Amino acid sequence: MPDSKPQTIRELFLRSQRDLLTFLTRRVGRDDAPDLLQETFARYINRDAAAEIADPPAYLRRTAGNLVKDFARHRQVERKYFTDDGEAADAPSQMASAESLVDDARRALLLAQAVATLPPRCREIFELRVTHNLSQREIAERLGISRKTVEQHFHLAMERCRAALQQ
């Protein structure tokens, strides 16, 4: 039954906001529902004959439903034409910045210098572990030494590499 007394927009908003937001949230999600709620009321306010609407809450509900349909169509078009391939003209570059490339090169040089200063057996164990991805057991078997010795040499190598990077 339509309400016969005129309502202010504020009263209408306060009465309808919660129901409309719940309706919109179920259909488009929490992130987009508030925007569609705002657009629903903006369309009501901007309507030339808003005062002549017999049942404003029903009008708002219908407007919200139409906005949901428009929203779904818009998302469908976005999915069709705008793929997330990371190659959009205004998308951030996936390449590292010149600053980070210089920093990476400096760190690589410091690591190479630290590895070069390791004792020969320690450097060999470090390279087998890091470069060839061998386990401590595999290195111990290959070199004919105990796993504990491999562990100690690798630990020393890692300490020196960390120290070199902190310079």
Automatic annotation (TrEMBL):
Belongs to the sigma-70 factor family. ECF subfamily. It holds the Pfam family Sigma70_r4_2. Residues 127-150 form the HTH cro/C1-type domain. One of its GO terms (molecular function) is sigma factor activity. InterPro entries: Cro/C1-type_HTH, RNA_pol_sigma-70-like, RNA_pol_sigma-70_dom, RNA_pol_sigma70_r2, RNA_pol_sigma70_r4_t2, RNA_pol_sigma_r2, RNA_pol_sigma_r3/r4-like, WH-like_DNA-bd_sf. One of its GO terms (biological process) is DNA-templated transcription initiation. SUPFAM superfamilies: Sigma2 domain of RNA polymerase sigma factors, Sigma3 and sigma4 domains of RNA polymerase sigma factors. PROSITE patterns: HTH_CROC1. Keywords: Sigma factor, Transcription, Transcription regulation. This is RNA polymerase subunit sigma-24.
